[in-house]
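re the bet — no i am not wrong, look at it urself. input seq straight from the record:
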Amino acid sequence: MGADSAGRGVIRRAVAGQRRDVTVGSVLGACHQIGEALVPVLIGLIVDRAVVRPDGGALAIWLLVLAVVYTLLSFGFRFGARAGERAAEQAAHELRLDVVRRVLAPHGGAEAGRPPGALVNVATEDARRVGAVNMALTLGIAAVVGVVAGAVLLLRASLPLGLLVLIGAPVLMALGHFLARPLEHRSEAEQEQAAHASGVAADLVAGVRVLKGLRAERAAVDRYRATSQASRDANVRAARAAALQTGLMFTLTGSFIALVALVGGRLVLSGSIGLGALVSAVGLALFLPGPISVLAWVGAELAKGRASAARIADVLAAPGETTGGTAEPAAHAPGELRLNGLGHAGLDALDLTVRPGEHLGVVVTDPADAATLLHCLARRCDPERGSVELDGVPLTELAPAALRSALLVAEHDAQLFDGTLLENVTAATPAGSDPNTAMDAAAVDEVASALAGGTGGRIGERGSSLSGGQRQRVALARALAADRGVLVLHDPTTAVDAATEARIAAGIRRARTDRTTVLVTSSPALLAATDRVVLVDGGTITAEAPHEDLVRDHPVYRTAVLT
């Protein structure tokens, strides 16, 4: 499916989901436009029936009718605009949820090649622009009704004037659509550059401490300046396209209205229409630029909406990191993890069985092999050879969401979120679970005591108010509190002092009693608390024994964990 086709699909869904409000807004907006068109006609009637031939009673009646029309058109404008705005905001909200769901989907893939700032831009500004299509349609339908109503009333006043409007208005709308095409392309480029600038800014903010430590502030500023200037230039080009389109439409509209007025004036001079009809015709000629200019604005909004819809469709249609899999883990499964001839990247023919309830240590001498193993266990990739099984079911056959609910791989670089310490720990805690056991096991009580507000204290974006060791402990507590049947931990204590690490090793053992736990680490304290340790060297399993035996008998293992 092409980008344009996918974008149109996004717009259709956004409009279809708000059909009721769009319909209500369009009907009320049409009533407003009809009322606006009737005002000059009623004034013309008042001139003919109560001014040219003075009649106080008729004047009062027609003024009352005019007041009623004003009341109704005001009601139509107010509540029609409200319905259209509600449709726009609700559609944008639902699109934001769709984008967030796709980004957080268990099969992943939406973030590939996109910095976080770019995804934020898609979920906010692009969603807003597509949602605004509902408001544009609401006002556009009402504007079309206004143009038709004005033409019909002109036909009643003068056939030549009515025909002129009926022929000229569609031509103006077609020109507006044609002139909006360059704006659509430049709007898409503008959003791409804005998203890129947001991504660069997010990256720089996230790494500000590192940049300061390296004294690389100037390079960072130069990088952002270049990106921001590119975004500014794209924005200026889009603004120029919008200004050109709007200016040309106003010029064409003004010329068209001048032509209507010229023809109407000649008809009055020839005696074809009277004074009241002249007033009505001039009033309608002044009214018509309103709905016609709205149609020009609608064209611009639709152009922006199409460009943003294509970007949203691109995120929603992003291929997942993993595909397939529909099976569910068995209820109360024991939690056996098995690797059968696993081969991927640097790993070769790994055969390993982690028994239910076992605490297993895994030492991998090559960090790249450790990352590959973790990716296969988390099913961020499927192995090139062999398989990984959970309770006898290959991971490739399990639904990604079901897999995540049974097996958690907590990687070393786990991120924290802005909020309180307790909110971070309990982010994935099952309903009714007590997080205190996990926090005690991860020595989070010491972190809480250093925060104003304790566990209710805010830790800042990405845990910026915490030290590296404190962040690790909170992330470990979150993993433990998730209470998965199988938990894989990757170097959870590299930034923790020795005394705290020993406490955490005992805490993990206590918190995960009778639960399958795999520790991919080189920490002697953590490995000493496991039932056995597997050594992966050169991509294959070369040793398997309790920690103490390997330290005594295996030189490679001793070097890996003690140096």
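see?? Residues 417-482 form one domain. told u. also The longest helix spans residues 217-269. so pay up
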